[in-house]
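User: Sequence recovery, please. Input:
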């Protein structure tokens, strides 16, 4: 299953239809709209199918005209939307967790923090609201990093890591960009994620944090935006 980009004149108000496999039993279909719209959902038989009617602003359906009006339901209050995009920078490792150690003794936690502080300066200089999960050499559990990002209403979460080689190889260079997804992540990528995060988990024997993050990603269209952002990062840095 792949996302389908629809021409505007073909189906008004619908920008993208994106399938997401929530689990083995449930498949979700996400509709990205050009603007907020009213919709109606119902099922039909012969053949069995689910129908979703999405209406333009001001358009009414025949069903609505024949049914009594429902009491207006007030949505539960959510986080305040200010229109400002928040970037969360996550320097990998820290404190008792040094991460990878290079041939000269340089620690990954030092490299990631240095890059994070520099990136924070650049983004704030451009007027972008930016937060770091750690701003000094301290140990932060993975659960605390993710909860911090959620409290700050992060729009983009970027975790920084650095690799090392066993033998001194001055020619070694390059970057890797990973996107968290149970669908797209391979065995080698999963090994990297497990290796990078095992020390920072409050309960290493449990994999619930990773499972919850993946579930959250796959129940929405966030994975599409993550893939798009990863492609941009890869292109700009290579």
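Assistant: Recovered sequence (238 residues):
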């Amino acid at each position: 299953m792949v996302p389908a980009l629809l021409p505007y004149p073909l189906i008004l108000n619908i920008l993208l239809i994106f399938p997401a496999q929530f689990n083995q039993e449930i498949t979700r279909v996400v509709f990205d709209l050009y603007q907020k719209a009213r919709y109606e959902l119902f099922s039909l038989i012969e053949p069995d199918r689910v129908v979703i009617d999405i209406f333009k602003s001001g358009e009414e359906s025949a069903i609505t005209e024949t049914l009594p009006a429902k009491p207006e339901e007030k949505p539960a209050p959510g986080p305040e939307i200010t229109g400002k995009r928040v970037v969360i920078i996550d320097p990998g490792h820290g404190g008792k967790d040094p991460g990878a150690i290079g041939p000269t003794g340089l620690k990954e936690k030092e490299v990631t923090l240095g890059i994070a502080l520099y990136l924070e300066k650049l983004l704030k200089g451009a007027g972008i609201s930016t937060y770091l999960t750690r701003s000094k050499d301290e140990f932060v559990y993975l659960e605390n990093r993710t909860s911090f990002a959620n409290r700050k209403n992060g729009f983009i979460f970027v975790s920084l890591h650095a690799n090392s080689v066993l033998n001194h190889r001055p020619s070694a260079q390059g970057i890797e960009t990973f996107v968290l997804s149970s669908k797209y992540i391979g065995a080698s990528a999963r090994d990297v994620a497990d290796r990078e995060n095992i020390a920072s988990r409050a309960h290493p024997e449990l994999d619930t944090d990773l499972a919850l993050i993946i579930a959250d990603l796959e129940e929405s269209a966030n994975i599409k935006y993550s893939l798009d952002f990863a492609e941009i990062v890869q292109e700009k840095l290579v």
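Residues 1-11, 59-68, 75-82 have pLDDT under 50 and may be disordered.
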